[in-house]
Amino acid sequence: MYVAYGWPKLLPIAGSQERLIHVSVSGSLLLLVSSSDVQVWSATQHRTKLGQFVRDLTSVQYEGINLHAKWSSDSRTVVVMTSGCILHFYEIYLLEKQLKLSGEEIGLRLVEVHPRSTINLPRTTTPETISSCCLTADDRSVLVGLSDGRLQLVSWSGELLGAADLLQGPATASGSLYIPETYGSPTLPVPAPLALHPSFSSPSTDSIGESGFGQLELSGSLHLLVAVLTDGYVLLCSINEKGLRQVSDIIPDKWVGITDAVCASIAHHQQILAVGCMRGTVELFNLADNALPLRTVSLFDWGYSVEDTGPVNCISFTPDNFAFSVGWQHRGLAVWSVSGCRLMCTIRQGSVSNVFSPSFSMFHGTDLSRSEPMVGGVAALAWGEQGYQLFAVEQRNVARLVEFPFAKSCVSQNVVGVAQAWQLLQGDDRVLLVQSDEEDQLKLQHLVIPQSYIGVNWPVMHVAANEDGTYLAVAGRRGVILYDMQLRKWRVFGDVTQERQVQCEGLLWIGKIVVICNYRESNKSYELSLYPRYHLDETSLLYRRQLPDKPIAMDVLQDFILVTCPPFDVNIFHVHVHGSLSPLKPTTVQLFPVRELSIMNARKPPLAMHFLPNVSGDRDPSPPCDGSCGDGFRDVVGEAILRQPTRCMLLRTDGELSLLDLEHGSERRLISGIERFWLTCGRPKEEAALIKEVPWWAYGHRGMQVWYPSSPADSTDDLQDAWELDPELDFDREVYPLGLCPDPGVIVGIAQRLSLSACAAMPCFEPTPQAQPILPCLLRHLLQRDKAEEALQLARLSCGRPHFSHSLEWLLFTVFDAAVSSQYVNKKRGKFSPTASRLLHQVCRLIRHFPEYLDVVVSVARKTDGRHWSELFEAAGRSTELFEECFLKGSYRTAACYILVIQKLEGPTISQQSAVRLLKATLEVALYELAGELCRFLLRAGREYEADKEAERNIFSAFFLGLSSPSTHVIGDDMHHATVKHILEKHAAQLMELKELHELVAFVKGTQFDFPNFLKSEKSKSARLEDFSAALRIVGEKLDLEVAEGRQDAEFLLFHMRTVGFKEWVVVLATVLRHPEMLLELFRGDGRLWEAYSKTLQSQENFLEYEDFLLTLEQDLGITREISESE
User: Fold this and answer.
1) Which H/E stretch holds residue 307?
2) Cα–Cα distance, 108 to 101 (Å, whole number)
3) Is the peptide bond before 459 cis (omega within 30 degrees of 0)?
4) Where would one find coiled-coil regions in this protein (predicted)?
5) Predicted confidence (pLDDT) per residue in 495-538, tens digit
6) Which position among 141, 331, 703, 960 has the lowest Cβ density within 10 Å, counted as fewest Cβ atoms?
């Protein structure tokens, strides 16, 4: 799994204003080829130009510009083909002079790019007629494909080895027609008796005609040559097992039924062919199964069409073949896992339309590259040696090379979901930790490795964490460095010389011991070296054991170590620590083999292996080795043989997951198409006691799946059932699962987010962790096994977790949704299948034990079709009874949700009665927004109910009389309106009587109550003010004018009081709000009113705060009188 992080880097290709046509990485060197020059850069931690060769103007004019390039596997020779069909060979020499950074050597040596030879390819046509050409190569020779259909073989020394017109011979290749649907969903292949190319449709035609080669891809390990033709077809050819020696060794074998292919790439380890198409999609084919189609990946599901991105322009697989990058011709770059999960995309979500297309920026002069990298399309792609960098050449910007940093999670490490608080991703100079904060929210932390270590040992090669998550071991190219998670301190080898002798090929923890698989360059051998975590030094080496070969899989369980060497030799060792593992006391460590197993079959080699703990009935489990097993036990070897694990999970390179019996060597296939798997061995003891079997979790193109050891071997039907029965584990297609955290009970996934910054030239890629609870899946599996009591206990153990309520809701929803689906497959239409109905009742009985039951049931009902509510509430209970429970508990919001269910199942009369009861209750507790929704429901329900009754009366009358009955006045609407009005007016009068002004304003706003009419009717009743001074004091107390909300409420009341002409209220509210203009309007023509007002404010000590306001009024009133007298 790969995920982009941080800001992309724009490499400064200074001095070159020509278009880059090629980028590739070989070892620690980066090759850049433009139209007229060849550049070599460092591909290590520091990006620096090491050497360059620039062709002169005469050479470019007569021989043409550079079109394609290829690097030899030993990084010593580069071949470049020009537009004039001329091959230039360049030698790459490493000079002795080393570069320095801040006065220190950084391990980089300058490079001399020296032209060695030039070859003119023999041609039958003029260069102007050749529209395209391509190159590919192996260790022996270079194969040149031209657009006129010819293949030319050239040795790396520059010797012409032969040529052939491969496409002009007899049509011997076969194929099958594969027509993807419009939006990327593949159809089944249709057999084709003849070759697919149109030129073969006529019996008299024995050649392809005008078609030529657009791209050539070579796989030496698969003995395969893939040719993408200029007319969109793809041809698979077999080659000699010893490589490209003669053109005659290239034999056309099969047509891949794609008719609009543009480019292709081969995943050698996975045996997958990826073909980019003009439609903007990428088609994946299984080379191990006669090139049958696997799946289609595209951006269609995210709303991007081919008009937004253009055709696919280039594809590049990661070095380990677990992901591939796709660049489109017009816009955008994305990275996908082989299973079809979108790991990274440069097109920002939400910019779907052509507003952000290159044509928009061209006509409007906007620079969209600041907000979206690769907005001008992608011309070339190349991954770094370890997959930590992706280099991309932009299509429309001259000499624009962008580097995207990536982090990855290794498939062979952290396979088991132990009780850790975090998950790991490794970058080239850091470790990314996904952990929970104090609020149980997932967050991502960047742990940057000290430059003193990573500067000379770049990049990170292996990362491993101990079982309790307190220590982290990181290995670069040399040495190992430890990190204490609690003290936040690093520990390295004390001696640099010793550090350089450690070349880590595998890293494990067993208790307090670090297990390193070390490659010794002195004798070219592999060995297991055991060091105590308190001291990394040769003087503290606990044990060393020679290995027969480089391990391809390693694992540890308690005090047993599994080491698998090629071709498939399994070695199990037992570690015994005699004494306390402490620097103060001598400790003896013994490592002896307890089992050796050699498996011979024709299947793919293992990619990852993990011990399965022995279940009850196999062998007694052993306590974990914490580094202090103590003394006093007898017959260590015999006891270890009895306690050793007897089974392990095995993932092969082709994605096949199986169970290996270590005692008999037998293998049980589980499923294919798997990328990662986990075991929940680190569960809390209480959960482990309830769930005896350890679930097996796996992720592939079907999504997340789970099995139990007692499950039968999977057939095709079983796989389909397993997929349909595990919807709780489903992630979005842009979220990739990292692993399981059994303690919080979630699957942790990672997704990409983009953030923009005004101070950065490009957006920042932010990996965002996401969690998916595993509790629904575990509960459902227990209920399916008739273990209701165990499921209840497990749910009670999990009730304090943050995702508990969501887990119960998701469990009920998925089971109910599966039951609804079952009625369409059931022979008796309209009824749930007995199994689905039984499981639904079991789930409802389980959730009944928890206070979240009422919320969960109605939430699931709101998410499902109302036509199936009767079946849901048949299992969950009558809707009126559930409403009554909510009402008595005071859960009025939940009770309101049941109103619609009652209307659907019990009829409008009961639902309206319940709504009236609930309306009165919500008004009493001041839930005015909810009361407003209930009012609207009652009025709407009354109109609908009476309309239906009127229609029924008309039909019934016409049935007897043959005539329509005269239209009558619908009094039901008025009746409901009167009921609601009475309830609201009664509550408003109560609030007005008590002068609860803040609640009154909230009531009017929430229920949309007709406040002006109410004030007019209550003018001489509850709305009347008897005493000015008392009213002023009460209004000031009830409305806190020191806060904004209080002033807004006062302004609201003042507006309505002025509207209805309540002068008493206007005087009081204008006074507390200090609105002199309103008071002046009242006092200008009424001197007695002004005199009474002023005397009241002056006579009360409580109103001293209005002294300045009164003075202002007096001055304004005096000025007004003088003006009126003068007039």
Assistant:
1) helix 306-309
2) 10
3) yes
4) none
5) 888 889 999 999 999 989 999 999 998 889 999 999 999 888 88
6) 960
889 φ/ψ angles, rounded to the nearest 5 degrees? -80, -10
How far is the C-alpha of 497 from the C-alpha of 514, rounded, in Å? 19
% of the chain at pLDDT higher than 90: 40
Q: For strand 251-257 and strand 174-177, is the pairing parallel, antiparallel, or unpaired?
A: parallel
The answer for residues whose C-beta is within 8 angstroms of residue 1055's C-beta and 6 or more apart is none
pLDDT band per the 50, 70, 90 thresholds, residue 121 = confident
What is the C-alpha end-to-end distance of the chain, expressed in Å?
A: 89
What single letter denotes the amino acid at residue 1080?
A: L
Helices (H), 962-1027: 971-994, 997-1007, 1011-1017
Phi and psi dihedrals of 80, rounded to 5? Answer: -125, 130
Percent of the chain with pLDDT over 70: 81
Looking from the CA of 903 toward its CB, the CA atoms found within 13 Å total 18
Residue 531 and residue 939: Cα distance in Å, rounded? 78
Would you state the pLDDT for residue 568?
92
Instruction: Read off the amino acid at residue 218.
Output: L
SS3 402: strand
Strand 151-155 versus strand 703-707 pairing type: unpaired
Give the whole-angstrom CA distance, residue 378 versus residue 314: 7
Longest CA–CA separation in the chain, Å: 123
- Short-list 185, 178, 198, 175, CA closest to 258: 178
pLDDT on residue 844: 94
**For the purposes of burial, counting CB atoms within 10 Å of the CB of 743, is it exposed (0-12), middle (13-18) or buried (19 or more)?**
middle
Average pLDDT, the chain: 82
pLDDT tens, residue by residue, 973-994 = 566 688 888 899 899 999 888 8
Q: What is the mean pLDDT of residues 938-963?
A: 51
Q: Which of 222, 220, 254, 221 is nearest to 237 (CA)?
A: 254
Do β-strands 160-164 and 151-155 pair in parallel, antiparallel, or remain unpaired?
antiparallel
18: exposed, middle or buried (Cβ count in 10 Å: 0-12, 13-18, 19+): middle
Quote the strand ranges of 371-503, DSSP E.
378-383, 389-394, 401-408, 422-426, 430-436, 442-448, 462-465, 471-475, 480-484, 489-491
422 pLDDT exceeds 90?
no
In Å, what is the CA distance from 443 to each residue of 398, 768, 769? 39, 7, 6
Q: Which residues contact 200 (CB under 8 A, 6 or more apart)?
A: 171, 194, 208
Residue 192 pLDDT = 37
Q: Which helix (H) or strand (E) holds 255?
A: strand 251-257
Contacts of 884 by beta carbon, 8 Å cutoff, 6+ apart: none
The two structure tokens encoding residue 454: 């990573």
Q: What angle do CA 118, 121, 125 make, to 5 degrees?
A: 140
Task: Name the β-bridge partners of 1094.
Answer: none
Neighbours of 193 (CB within 10 A): 6
Q: Which amino acid is present at 386?
A: Q
Rounded Cα distance between 545 and 155, Å, is: 45
Q: What is the DSSP letter of 485?
A: T
CA distances, 597 to each of 526, 560, 662 (Å): 19, 15, 7
For 402, residues 6+ apart whose C-beta sits below 8 A from its C-beta are 8, 9, 10, 11, 373, 374, 391, 392, 393, 394, 762
d(CA 504, CA 479) in angstroms, rounded, equals 7
pLDDT-derived band at 3 (thresholds 50, 70, 90) equals very high
pLDDT, tens digit (0-9, with 9 covering 90-100), for 172-219: 555 554 444 433 334 334 333 334 454 444 333 444 556 788 899 999
CA–CA separation, 339 and 882 (whole Å): 44
| Sheet containing 323-328: order of strands | 312-317, 323-328, 333-337, 342-345
- Return the number of other C-beta atoms located less than 10 Å from residue 134's C-beta: 23
Residue of 72, 97, 61 whose CA lies nearest to 156? 72
| Tokens coding 645 | 């694990």
**Dist CA 305 CA 283 (whole Å):** 16
